[in-house]
Please model this.
Amino acid sequence: MPMISAMIANLRRPPRTAVEVIADAVRAGAIVVTLVALFTLPFTDFVVLSMALPAVMLARMIGLRSGLDVVTCVTVFVAAGSNVIDLYRSWTGWDLIVHAVCTGVLAAVALVLLDDARVIAPTGRRRTPILVATIAGLALSAVWEMVEWFGYRFITDAIFVTYDDTIGDMIAGGAGALVAGVLASRFALTREDRAPL
Model:
């Protein structure tokens, strides 16, 4: 339970900088847009948008640095919103960009969670976050592709799923996670004043 208490403390902490205020504004905007979507868009679009909310909230709860918090919130919600407004089909290459950036920020979140849960030991070596982030990113990419396949197979055939698309998305996700790992090996991912999980 200490981890949950720390998450609640981080969530309740008032913003102290302009960037933290921006992160909270983006978070609030994502919640409002999702609630409006419940009443104005098809239910599947609401579900897609609501799938982004746990990551948007988790960024605050684990005490990410304010800049990374903003990037996480924007990236995850743009990834979901791009599906709703069909950018993945209309903008060539957008899918790969989103997979790289979104998987990168989610791999950074995974690094924080794994470190706080003592799943990975802080060794002081710069290679540890690079390796762990890349593995986490590839695992997240695989789950993402399984969710896409499940949606295509059981919900709507409007979801674009092909072998080449799946492999390309996983490569982009792995590359984004690798970059996140390199950055994490050089910069702190969390605020200094956060409640440790």
Summary: The mean pLDDT is 91.
